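User: Sequence in, structure out. Go.
Assistant: Echoing your sequence, followed by the structure tokens.
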Amino acid sequence: MAKPPVIPVRFYDLPGGSEPVRDWLKEMDRDDRRVIGEDISVVEFGWPIGMPTCRPLGDGLWEVRSNLSGGRIARVIFAINAGRMVLLHGFIKTTQKTPKADLELARKRKKDLNR
């Protein structure tokens, strides 16, 4: 029998029903989706987990860290809400520091979780 996740994953959904992180993943090629999915699964089944897969960002936000082919880096920002890992925002990282706009968007979505 399969071991249940420690913190089940769900996608953040907008009021209209779309799921931004799921949509972002669908735009990626199969290999990139696989790598990111495996990293999310490591967190889902191994929580709490630290570096190099997961890192706290403050304000109750965490990031799943994925290394893609070609030296690209992907991040999925999540929060824990009602015992679930809610995927708030995903992006390809192009700078050393997480861009402020990406953090702000994740913070806004986290506030919306209790709507």
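User: And one key feature?
Assistant: The chain is about 30% helix and 30% strand.
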